Amino acid sequence: MKLTDDEKAMLDGKEGIGRQRAMELLVRYCKALGAERLVDTNNVATAINATNPHQREWAARGDFDGVFAEFNVDSPDRFEMPPLKAFTCHLIGAMDVGHWQVLGVPERLVDLQRQSEAFFGPRGIQLMQTCTPYQVGNVPVKGEHCAWMESSAVVYCNSVLGACTNTEGTASTGAAALTGKIPYWGYHIPDNRFGTHLLRVECEVESMMDWGMLGYFAGELVEEDIPVIDRVGKVPNLIRLKHFGAAAASSGGVEMYHVAGVTPEAPSIDAAFGPRRRPAQVIKYGPAERRATYDNLNSQATDRDIDFVMLGCPHESIEQVWEVAKLLDGKKVSANTQLWVHTPRAIKQVADRNGYTRIIEDAGAHLMSDTCPAISQYVPKGTKVVATDSAKQGHYLPAILGVQCWFGSMEDCVNAAVSGRWNGAL
Amino acid sequence: MTTITLHGRSVVGGKTEGETLVTRQTISGWGGVNPTTGTITEKRHELVGQSFKDKVLVFPGAKGSSGWSVYFHMCRLAKTNPKALLFNRVTTKVALGAVVTHMPAVTDFDMDPLEVIETGDWVRVDGDAGIVEVTKQARAAAE
Question: Are the beta carbons of A399 and B32 separated by less than 8 Å?
Fold first, then answer.
């Protein structure tokens, strides 16, 4: 592979051991990918998560330099973290320190989380603590080379914003933060961004739930390929595309999609497939496919008594928090059920100001930030049956926590929280 | 007993041999694997409940969360990682996962490893040269 002079200097250790180890990781990674060179990036989204269930032991030693060297650089030895070269934001984290008692987090882990933030914050890891950096100010521009983790953010970044990123991981984003480099491979290369499959929508796809199901269907069929969605009625908004991408990146590995006439690289079907290209497959999504997807998402659940309702995966926008507040206004969550709503902390501030937090709390629910149950692995004690409006969360929770999970609309979920029973329907 | 040799591209160097665990389904890392045991936990996966610890994992590729690599990283630290990774589709998830697992890994084969290799076959993996030697009837070979 070809390295530029500044890359060689870092690899040779001229900028210290931290950047040297980071360049070594990037070179090993390029070889694994078959990439020929690196590209400059000044937009990194990473996760340090020193308090994640499987990384706590490392952090408990109080050695955050060691945590970073091991997990964020895959370094064979510990080093003192040098100043970052690239603008870097932190994705979702392991807990909400504002709700640790509700979550049931042991106090020592809360201390550890606070120490971790006090360590990494001043060193330039922007503590946005959300899976949706694009909702709180990190909105890459079309063509911008990024190094993002978080499959739901990656697919949004590529598809909706037209910026360029692969689904990076903990080690590659740590190395990118230290060097300002990432392999020039995959979605950084314009030729790899064209559509592969045509998905013809032949039924109504309008609500957030509809878009979540369409994404779940698309991901299962195309796996890592690039679906082009055609014949969409109304233009979908941020919420709908956020849910579509998150679902497609969970049932499959979709990192990029096009919605004809909507997303920036698909002014038309032809443009989405690029010059000389035809779809490898044309797929129909009609009422039967919609029904099958709904049943598929609900196939793990049998008990209708709901212990826990989870909203906000990916983290909710202020518009969604407003919706939840309207649905909950004047109501009470069932004594047998808990309702947790998740939004970035910056958006929670707006919700506080608007009085939505109080409406949600008066109903007996919680508006949380910084984490979600799939990441924190905290759910209300004794939870066996969950309801969620997120196809992504519905996909992962049974595997991660061994619970049953119902999927439905936000309204179905709020109703379930209030009645304690699942009565969702298509 | 027959021996078949596959030629591919080196992803991560190193040499090893062992019994295979084969799946035709892509694998999730985060939300699909328990790093403490190396067990597949995705409910609808054909390998659910089975561990890849000390096995040569043969699979189409990675899917799901960007936590893929860090979960295989944690498997390495917990010593539950596969002995080698043989896969078809290169993505950033599986490539970085192989890098941080520090085990031999090979891809881009001249024959589809999912057609040639069955669970229980014995394989010798040369991660540097990208060569995989498959011996059918694992038990006979092991004895």
Answer: yes
Tell me how close the Cα of B34 comes to any Cα of chain A, in angstroms: 8
Let me know whether A232 and A342 are in one domain.
no
Domain of A372, in residue numbers: 299-419
Q: Is A424 within a domain?
A: no
Number of domains in chain A: 3
**A261 lies in a domain?**
yes
Q: How far apart are alpha carbons B2 and B7 in whole angstroms?
A: 17
Residues 6+ apart with CB under 8 A from A424: A387, A406, A407, A408, A409, A412, A413, A415, A416
Per-residue pLDDT of chain A (426 residues; tens, 9 = 90+): 999 999 999 999 999 999 999 999 999 999 999 999 999 999 999 998 766 666 667 777 778 999 999 999 999 999 999 999 999 999 999 899 999 999 999 998 899 899 999 999 999 999 999 999 999 999 999 999 999 999 999 999 999 999 999 999 999 999 999 999 999 999 999 999 999 999 999 999 999 999 999 999 999 999 889 999 998 889 999 999 999 999 999 998 899 999 999 999 999 999 999 976 789 999 999 999 999 999 999 998 999 999 999 999 999 999 999 999 999 999 999 999 999 999 999 999 999 999 999 999 999 999 999 999 998 989 999 999 999 999 999 998 998 888 999 999 999 999 999 999 999 999
Among B28, B31, B99, select the one facing A28 at the smallest CB separation: B99
Choose the mutation target among B99, B107, B108, B128 for the interface with A, i.e. most A CBs under 10 Å: B99
In terms of domains, do A149 and A268 share one? no
C-alpha distance from residue A402 to each of A295, A358, A383 (Å): 19, 32, 10
Question: Of the listed B10, B28, B51, B65, which one is catalytic?
Answer: B65
Q: How far from A271 is each of A227, A234, A254, A280, A351, CA to CA, in Å?
A: 13, 20, 19, 15, 40
User: For residue A121, what is the domain's CATH number?
Assistant: 3.30.499
Please state, in angstroms and rounded to a whole number, the distance separating the CA atoms of residues B8 and B132: 8
- CATH number for A345: 3.30.499.10
Residue A34's CB: how many other CB atoms inside 10 A? 16
Q: Does the annotation mark B66 as catalytic?
A: no
A:B CB pairs within 8 Å:
111
> Architecture of B3-142 per CATH?
3-Layer(bba) Sandwich (3.50)
A163 and A228 part of one domain: no
Residues A182 and A238 placed together within one structural domain of the fold: no
Domain assignment present for residue A425? The answer is no
